[in-house]
Amino acid sequence: MLTNSTHSLSEVVDGLLKPLSKTELKLVLDDLQKIGADEPVVADILKTEGALRDFISAALTLSPYLRDIANIDPGILTIAISEPLEPRLEALIAEAREAWMPRDGASPSESEIMGRLRTVKRRVAFLLALADLARIFDGRTTTAWLSRLAEATVSAAIDHLLLSSHEARKLQLKNVARPSEGSGLVVLGMGKLGACELNYSSDIDLVVFFDEQAGILSDPDDAIDIFPRLMRRLVRIMQERTGDGYVFRTDLRLRPDPGATPLAVSIDAAMVYYEGRGQNWERAAFIKARPVAGDIAAGDRFLRDLTPFVFRKYLDYAAISDIHSIKRQIHAHKGHGAIAVKGHNVKLGRGGIREIEFFAQTQQLIAGGRMPALRSRATEETLNELTKAKWIDEETCEELTDAYWFLRDVEHRIQMVRDEQTHLLPETEGELKRIAYMMGFSDTPSFSERLVEVFRTVERRYARLFEQETKLSTETGNLVFTGQNDDPDTLVTLRKLGFERPSDISRVIRTWHYGRYKATQSVEARERLTELTPELLRVFGESKRADEAILRFDSFLSGLPAGIQLFSLLGSNPALLSLIVYIMSAAPKLAEVIAARPHVFDGMLDPGLMAELPTRDYLAGRLKGSLQQARYYEEVLDRLRIFAAEQRFLIGIRLLTGSINGAMAGRAFTHLADLIVEAALNAVLSEIEAAHGKFPGGRVAVAGMGKLGSFELTAGSDIDLILLYDYDDAAEESDGAKPLDAVRYFTRITQRLIAALSAPTAEGVLYEVDMRLRPSGNKGPVATRVSSFAKYQREEAWTWEHMALSRARLICGDASLIGDVERVIEEVLSTRRDVRKVAKDVAEMRALIEQEKPPANMWDLKLIPGGVVDIEFIAQYLALIAPAKDVVVKVNGISTGEALKQLGAPLMASADVDSCSEAFGLYTELSQLIRLCIDGPFDPKDAPAGLIDLVCRAGDCPDIKTLEGEMKQLSKTVRKVFQAVVKAG
Questions:
Q1: How many other CB atoms are there within 10 angstroms of residue 486's CB atom?
Q2: 55, 119 in Cβ contact below 8 A?
Q3: How far is Cα 732 from Cα 743, in angstroms, rounded to an integer?
Q4: 500 in helix, strand or coil?
Q5: Distance CA 873, CA 982 (A)
Q6: 726 has which bridge partners?
Q7: Phi, psi (5° rounding) for residue 128?
Q8: pLDDT tens digit sequence for 674-687
Q9: Contact at 8 Å (CB) between 169 and 216?
Q10: Nearest alpha carbon to residue 480 among 845, 489, 606
Q11: Can you tell me the distance from the alpha carbon of 927 to that of 495, in angstroms, rounded to the nearest whole number?
């Protein structure tokens, strides 16, 4: 017990503390003289030389905080000098505990309670500091008194809050004389408060739970509103700074998933969380948990029920692996390099307090399930129990115990200087001397030597704990993501790795460990992610704009249904990890696809992915397998969407990694669209025939226009379609149960096909469909009979429609109808035209586009002068005038680039063909990459850094400025060719 014996400051030994300097000593003695004018006891001490006078004056030179208290509250200095310490401390703590109690029939106001608690805190802090500096109290005693003070102040605040809520009729207490009793409000002290090892200037970690069925609420559903509000008031009572100071900084962030839960959590919800998603570090944290306020009996029950979570019943390999994953989150230095005393963190740094605590806690977690004696809260007690159980030897126990209390003394003195919650040794010689003197050393070299010796001892013992274990660290330094707060050394490491906002990145990684995402909810998944994190951060850090990339990876994780397989694969496959980082840094659009539809990632797990070119046969085989299990129409549409999304993604990955080039990607995207449209059409025809029967002699074919027709689709292209049909003239309606006439029958097929491709379902949209290239555009019927199509093309179509027809390609449908349509197209395109009229029409159309759709910037590759449209128009113009020049080239079913070469050879200067081909090849590479990686226009100023690198590589240029120069030159050349070719016509 703390009050079994009594001590006073008169016991201090002579010469224990040296004053900071003669100047400071003179100033302190002047202050004491002024205090002595009103405090006779102080005046008496000053009259005679002695150990007590020297100690008091030296202590006040070393601690500005204590000196301020003595000046503000001289009475406490008198008490410190003249009274036994323990009885006065006991009386002060009792005063704090009773601060909530009504007096003269009236409950105190919140501000009155705040004042009372702050006065007690200031006086207790003063007495304890002097007793500690005088070596009358050791660290064990000081921390125990501080913990008792915190417990009393929190209990008083909780009782006040419950009583005030009772008086406001928000709840009904069972006993107003003991508000907390039976309230179901559980306040657990965590960390050093729970272990009765509180620092001198510590914050207090609290976790608050409530039992809504405790019987103090008329409606249990009100609990989730009432108790969190009370906790906000608790924080204000405890830590708001007033003229009297503060009581304790109060941290409630050790509760389950604090970013997503209120300040107080129901007991039932907490148990569900810990049993299903509780993390390794939370197990370690609950070793020290202790009910400190509120309903103590309910708190004891809660901790009893939580025991299986904290202490596993069996010591099996899985449990050990689980515990080791915490160890991997602390950087175990192996003693290399010097330890700099100045600026060293005595809590979190090498050889610090945290390492001793962790040394004890990991072994508690491993063996505490079988050995209840190891479930102690206090560090020294745990080390002793580990020794008794033969888990460590006596020498280790003694070394670590001595080191622990030495470092706790240093920590206290750092904090006593100005009442700051810091664990950093001063960086200046003068301030370090202050700490050395407070520790009783005569100079800084001797203090530093002893300190380094202790750090080395702890470091050595700690490093031996799991010598064979992988550590979550890099050659660069610490990577610690446990608990709630940022580890300072980890922030330094993250910045060295290449992250600009290390605190944000640290917070994101801690979120993973909370198990908020499905991918990180299991212990196994989190452990694998823990092992992966150092390499993950290293690879991400090497990418440009690393912060953006890892935030996209976070978004990706949030959408994954599970994580174990992925984390294992990434851990064993560095190339796959690099690819993921590449996507996140260069291709936000692909990253969004993965995040929104994680199943697309499954295809990347195929080891033969990069070796297989996405040919039509390859894709057709995959699609057939995907559709085999589909049993009904809606399932076919969903499977088509899943397949298309995955294959688009995988084609994109091949393009991104350079396995295929832009032209190959365009062909692959087009093959995919062909197969999807064909499968959708077949499904639609089956549905229509089931409802309305077949139409006698009915035949359907689908023509792909634009980029779909010329094998040039990109990752984000919509598709231009025309649906053509024919039937027996004698037939009036279909032969089903619900017959339709011809127009309605084939219109219904077209409408259903458009919906099948473009209607959003749970699996998204296949393609946006554009039907405006059909005869008469939007004004005409959505489906066109082949005879009407032929008549329109021969007699009514504009030049631009014939230009579009030069890219038409029949992609699916009835073979005989496909042949009929192809013959119509060939006949129309073989017509000998008035070359001058065609040239005039093409030039006017290009001018109109330039006027109505000017390019957004030089990267608007389609619309810039000398861009894609110019080259397409050259090829289409040549296709239309070729018959008049006696040139026969079949352009349907080939790409624009190929058409340009075949038509240009006889109709253009070879140098012009080469220039246009070079430009079109570059535009294709750039367009495919840009459309793959981002939505919207490309602007180098805003584009992801990884995409800039990709674009430069695609253009074979060292930097973006060089590439822009190349593009300007090429586009200028193409525009001249366009003007010359069309004008020459």
A1: 18
A2: no
A3: 10
A4: coil
A5: 9
A6: 699
A7: -65, -40
A8: 999 999 999 999 99
A9: no
A10: 489
A11: 35
How would you classify the pairing of strands 809-813 and 699-705? Answer: antiparallel
Residue 944 and residue 545 in contact, taking contact as beta carbons nearer than 8 Å:
yes
DSSP state, residue 807: T
Residue 647 token pair: 């294959």
DSSP 242-300: BTTB-S--EE-TTSSSTTTS-SEEEHHHHHHHHHHH--HHHHHHHHS-EEEEE-HHHHH
Distance CA 683, CA 676 (A): 11
Angle at 94 between CA 93 and CA 98, to 5 degrees: 120
Residue whose tokens read 């060292």: 958
Helices (H), 73-138: 74-82, 85-97, 110-133
Give the tens place of pLDDT for each residue, 144-153. Answer: 999 999 999 9
Q: Does residue 585 register a pLDDT over 90?
A: no
Q: Phi first, then psi: what are they for 421, rounded to 5°? A: -85, 80
Instruction: Give 657-669 as a 3 state SS string.
Output: HCCCCHHHHHHHH
Q: Residue type at 237? A: I
Alpha-carbon gap, residue 129 to 139, rounded angstroms: 11
Paired tokens of 906:
């006889």
CB 416 within 8 A of CB 204: no
- Between CA 75 and CA 80 the distance in angstroms is 9
The enclosing H or E element of 726 equals: strand 719-726
| Residue 419, SS3 per DSSP | coil
| 323-326-330 Cα angle (round to 5) | 140
Q: CB-based burial of residue 501 (10 Å sphere; 0-12 exposed, 13-18 middle, 19+ buried)?
A: middle
Q: Which phi and psi angles does 368 have, rounded to 5°?
A: -65, -25
User: In 814-967, where do the E strands start and end?
Assistant: none
Which residues are within 8 A (CB) of 848 and not within 5 positions of it... i.e. 6 or more apart? none
Label residue 717 left, alpha or beta by phi (over 0 means left) and psi (-120 to 50 means alpha).
Answer: beta
Distance, CA of 306 to CA of 290 (rounded, Å)? 12
Q: What's the rounded Cα separation, in Å, for the pair 669 and 708?
A: 9
Assigned token pair, 178: 């003991």
CA 497 to chain centre: 17
Rounded to 5 degrees, φ, ψ at 699 are: -140, 145
Of 594, 611, 595, 682, nearest to 646 by C-alpha is: 594
**Is the pLDDT at 51 greater than 70, yes or no?**
yes
Burial class (CB in 10 A: 0-12, 13-18, 19+), 476: middle
User: Is residue 391 classed as helix, strand or coil in its secondary structure?
Assistant: coil
Buried-state track 723-747, b at ≥16 Cβ within 10 A, e below 16: bbbbbeeebebbebeeebebeebbb
Which residue, among 747, 826, 740, has the nearest Cα to 780 in the 3D structure? 747
What's the CA gap between 809 and 806, in Å, rounded?
9
- Residue 723: strand pairing partners: 702, 783
Mean pLDDT of 919-937: 91
End-to-end CA separation in angstroms for the chain: 108
Least confident piece of the model among 61-65, 648-652, 697-701: 648-652
User: Contact at 8 Å (CB) between 713 and 669?
Assistant: yes
Beta bridge pairs of residue 741: 733
CA–centroid distance for 556 within its chain: 9
Residue 324: in which H helix or E strand, if any? helix 317-327
Structure tokens given for 941: 């100023």
pLDDT at 598: 65
Mean pLDDT over each residue of the chain, to the nearest integer: 88
Residue 870 pLDDT > 60 = yes
Angle 150-154-160 from CA coordinates, rounded to 5°: 150
Instruction: Classify strands 477-478 and 719-726 as parallel, antiparallel or unpaired.
Output: unpaired
C-alpha to C-alpha distance for 518 and 536, rounded to whole angstroms: 19
Picking from 432-441, 895-904, 931-940, which range would have the lowest pLDDT averaged per residue? 931-940
pLDDT for the residue numbered 331: 44
